[in-house]
Design a protein that fits this description.
By secondary structure, this protein is an all-beta fold. It has a single domain, classed as Translation factors (Elongation Factor Tu (Ef-tu), domain 3, Beta Barrel), CATH 2.40.30. The strands form three sheets. The protein has a six-stranded antiparallel sheet with strand order 5-4-10-1-2-9, with no helix packed on it. Strands 3-8 form a two-stranded antiparallel sheet. A two-stranded antiparallel sheet has the order 6-7. It is globular, with a radius of gyration of 11 Å. The mean pLDDT is 91.
């Protein structure tokens, strides 16, 4: 993932509701395609489209760098995983 556009990092994962918490380094919008992967690996764990973004339990269409968001993820993610534009 070193060549990818890193937009954030997973800080927490809630397995019962399949929600990842992501600290954003760059802006993110609903509809974008993103990939998840380990810091030390150039390989993506998986990619998915952003279907919704939640901040403070409220749905938003756009989040800015520096904000922490929640979003449904298609597969389990782990704290420390990088989030990149796919």
């Amino acid at each position: 993932m070193a060549e990818k556009d890193v937009i954030g990092e997973v800080t927490h994962y809630f397995p019962k509701i399949s929600v990842g918490i992501i600290k954003l380094h760059k802006d993110l919008c609903v509809g974008e395609l993103i990939g998840f992967g380990a810091k030390e690996s150039a390989n993506e764990h998986f990619t998915q489209q952003v279907h919704s973004i939640q901040m403070e339990h409220t749905a938003v269409q756009h989040a800015k760098a520096g904000q922490e968001i929640g979003m449904k993820v298609d597969k389990p993610v782990h704290a420390g995983e990088m989030v990149c534009r796919a």
